[in-house]
Amino acid sequence: MDACIERLREMQLRFDRFDASEAGDEVRWFEKRGRGFVLHITPLEVASVFNDFRETVDATWLFTSATLSVRGDFSHFTGQMGLADAATLQLDSPFDYANNALLWLPENLPEPRDPGFVPLLLERVIPLLKASRGRAFLLFTSHRALKNAAEVLADRLPFPLFIQGERPRSLLLEQFRASGEGVLLGSSSFWEGVDVIGDALSLVVIDKLPFAAPDDPVIEARSDLLRRSGGNPFTQLYLPQAVISLKQGAGRLIRDVNDRGALVICDPRLRTRSYGRIFLESLPPMRQATEQSEVELFLHV
Q1: Contact partners, residue 166, CB within 8 Å, separation at least 6
Q2: What is the pLDDT of residue 10?
Q3: Are residues 149 and 225 in the same domain?
């Protein structure tokens, strides 16, 4: 009984915290999950919190990742973390991207917001899936696009489909690896922290640039904060976060020195918008194909 009372008091304190007067350094939001919901309190910036913590610990801090920089520049990460005096170093990858990876940007696709974008994207991708004999990740920025693609591909491919949401992520990956010719359709949780080493994965297709949704409550609040301080939310927030997310998604392809495969990014904005160059220059140094047939030949080998 005492434990239950203590638990109820703890819950009451959390609800009181959520219901307190607005604070300018945080955003409060809720997320629906099934038949319930989750309450969140997210700081608008973590630099001050992290710096306060650093002062209490006598230690050297080392941050390493393949996706911390934007076109070789670490200022987005160091700025967010309050590391104004940080020493940075970018090392070349041990992977032979020039010979083992190929990048293709399909031409003449409509803007991603066009209703025909996903069907036309798949018309370009299906021949590649056949050339690679499955063994592919199709990464989407929305569950709606993923479901649309799953419906189209269900009757068009001779390979097993593994669709996010139908089974737990770990089981999907296990079955994908075991199949040897699977096609996995995933969204956000498959863009990072997923390793498929070897022949089971030879093709990664990304539908569009992973810009954060403008109505995301945390992004929206941080954008407002930047505007009030005279900043530019697109160049200081949306763009660098999207570049880092794209690098994470592209990073699913080559996970070992012996891996080999093709990366296809279907968003025409890489060609038509000035910021497209920032994305391309942030990717590993892959050779770029000019024709679909070149990609098919590469995958056949």
Answers
A1: 172
A2: 77
A3: yes
Higher pLDDT, 221 or 163: 163
Share of residues in the chain with pLDDT > 70 (%): 96
- Residues 74, 130: one domain? no
DSSP β-ladder status, 36-43 and 26-33: antiparallel
Regarding pTM above 0.70, the answer is yes
87 domain-assigned:
no
Measured from the Cβ of residue 208, the count of other Cβ atoms closer than 10 Å reads: 25
> Could you tell me the residue range of the domain that residue 74 belongs to?
2-81
Same domain, 162 and 294: yes
Q: 32 forms bridges with which residues in the sheet?
A: 37
Show Cβ contacts of residue 129 under 8 Å, excluding neighbours closer than 6 positions.
136, 157, 159, 183, 203
For 56-94, write each residue's pLDDT tens digit. Answer: 988 889 998 888 889 889 998 998 898 888 899 988 888
Give yes or no for a contact between 142 and 94, defined as CB atoms under 8 angstroms apart: no
| Within-domain flag for 189 | yes
Can you read off the two tokens belonging to residue 37?
């919901």
pLDDT bracket for residue 199 (50, 70, 90): confident
Name the DSSP class of 77.
H
Same domain, 21 and 112: no
CA distance 225 to 232: 10
Tokens 């801090």 -> residue: 61
